[in-house]
Amino acid sequence: MKMTFRWYGLSDSVPLEFIRQIPGMSGVVTAVYDVAPGKEWSVRSVDELKSACSAAGLEMEVIESVPVHEDIKLGRGRRDEYIEAYKTNIRRLGQAGVKVICYNFMPVFDWVRTVLNKQNADGSYSLAYRDDDIKKLDPSNLSLPGWDESYSKEQLSELLAAYKEVSHEKLFENYVYFLKQIIPVCEENGVKMAVHPDDPPWDLFGLPRIVSTEQDLDRLFAAVPSKANGLTLCTGSLGAGRPDLPKLAAKYAAAGRIHFAHLRNIEFSAEHDFAETAHLSCCGSLDMYAIVKALVDNGFDGYVRPDHGRNIWGESGKPGYGLYDRALGAAYLNGLFEAAEKQR
């Protein structure tokens, strides 16, 4: 297992030298953030990222993410053009030593929260999701916490209208088409794709989501059997659907499908309501030790990062991505992995 840390490039409020000081930290998970989906990342931009990481004594073996253009998801006429650009990015990342690309296939919106600064009893602040708040929103005129507003209102309205013609089955067909184009390139370049599950794992605003359940994952891996077609096991995203997470971790680790893991805890307050908590099992609804033990016992040897943290100790900045709580999470997770490995 290699412990990693999400880093948003030179504009990140958390500098690489601080990340390097976290015990057991091997590298960072990052991306080129100033290039639009469907465009090629320059060799220079990739090399500059890697050089910055190497200078800080950190590896850059996981990219999160290379976004998938909406035309690929919709199956529009220019999708092959955008897929070719995606292939180029895979080749360039492979040449730079990248081993895993974390990505998602969620239409329009990726992760969604309704509250970015829920105040907890201990005075910390965390991300939360309230389903009733989502149901009150007009998707064509959104002001959604955490959403980066990648589209103008006109573009968003056009996309939402286009997706009305896309069923779950059609989206899955478009997804398989994409994977069958890129996976051979991954195999040639020593890169593995690790899809991030839908977050949260249910349809939103009438948009289909197709990477939400165990059944979805089984179907995906059956359609594209290559081991380069794998999973980012995100305990918070999958966990929001309340499956048996240790069972899923064991199943997909044993099958060699988990290339990356986002490990965080959440606490349920209603069927579709949850808040993110500190990483410890006792702080939320998930048994983090059971999940880690299932990974270790079934041969997982991929990359891990502590997922969203709370804002604690007066820290401000990008919600979910401060230094302190994620560093605490990394230390806790390293302890769980050490204990599980020594008990094998």
Polypeptide structure, described:
With about 350 residues, the chain is α/β, with parallel strands linked by helices. It is about 40% helix and about 15% strand. It is built from twelve helices and twelve strands. The chain has an eight-stranded parallel β-barrel, surrounded by four helices. It has a four-stranded antiparallel beta sheet with strand order 5-6-11-10. Helix 4 runs parallel beside helix 7 (about 170-190), helix 10 (about 245-255) runs parallel beside helix 11 (about 290-295) and helix 11 crosses helix 12. About 45% of the residues are buried.
Which key terms come to mind for this protein?
344 residues; alpha/beta; TIM Barrel; 8-stranded parallel beta barrel; 4-stranded antiparallel beta sheet; 12 helices
Domain unit count:
1
Supply the number of helical segments.
Answer: 12
* Global mean pLDDT: 94
**Strand portion, in percent?**
15-25%
General shape: globular
Query: Tell me about the biggest sheet?
Result: 8 strands, parallel, barrel
Strand order within the widest sheet? 1-2-3-4-7-8-9-12
Quantity of strands, as a count = 12
CATH superfamily: Divalent-metal-dependent TIM barrel enzymes
Q: For this structure, what is the CATH class?
A: Alpha Beta
Provide the structure class: alpha/beta
Backbone CA Rg = 19 Å
Helix content: 25-40%
CATH architecture: Alpha-Beta Barrel
| Low-pLDDT sequence parts | none
What fold name goes in the CATH topology slot? TIM Barrel
**Secondary-structure element order, as H and E?**
EHEHEHHEEEHHHEHEHHEEEHEH
Gap from first CA to last CA: 15 Å
